[in-house]
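Every protein is a chain of amino acids, and every chain bends into a shape of its own. The protein below has been through that process, and both of its lines are reproduced in full.
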Amino acid sequence: MKALIDTGVWFRHYHRLPITAKLADLLSDSDTEMHLSPLSVYEIAFKWQRQKLSPLVDSPDLWLDDALEGYNLVMPTAKDSMQAGLWTWTHGDPVDRLLAAMALSNNLTLIHTDEKLKDLDGFPQQYFRGTN
């Protein structure tokens, strides 16, 4: 499977925070081609700077390079940005909308634990419950 990994999934997986066994299996499967958006790096840095992450988590600049190993970076395009803005969803998180558009345009399945995204259509996705 060619997968675009959502920010929260990437963060939890790297820091060995609880995730479901099914999600852990997918992420460790050698057949899973894992992709990540630089938007996820931004989102984590933004949350860390505003102390919205666990105080046990070091500054992202100390672990980022290691956390990116094994991921192919996928850049958003102008068309992705347009698609993200045109969806008529009530869900307004711009990063989530852009990740969904990037998954669609790059033929990737968005792997996420977001309750708000799971019922939306128009992009390939696989939802997992957040934790065990």
Notes: The radius of gyration is 14 Å. DSSP finds seven helices and five strands in the chain. The chain has a mean pLDDT of 94.
